[in-house]
Amino acid sequence: MTTQNKQPHELRSWLVCMTAASFFLYEFIQMLCLNSMSSDIISAFHINATQLGWLSSVYFISNVLFLFPAGQLIDRFSVKRLILFSLALCITGTALFSQTEQFSMALFFRFITGIGSAFCFLCSMRLASRWFLPHRMALVSGSIVTMAMLGGWIAQAPFASLVSLVGWRNAMLFDAAFGILLWLGIALIVREYPPEALRTYENDHTQLHRLGWVSSMKKAYGRKQNWLCGIYTDFMNLPIFLLGGLWGGLYLMQIQHLPKILATHVSGMLFLGTIIGAPLVGFISDKLSCRKLPMWIGAILSFLLILMLIYLQLNATTLSVIFFLLGLSTSTQVLSYPTVTESNPHALTAMSVSVVSFCVISGGAMFEPLFGWLMDLKWDQTVHNGLNVYSNADLHRGLLIMPVAFLVAGLMLMGIRETFCKLFVEETP
Question: What domains does the chain contain, in order, with CATH numbers?
Answer without folding.
Answer: 9-413 (1.20.1250.20)
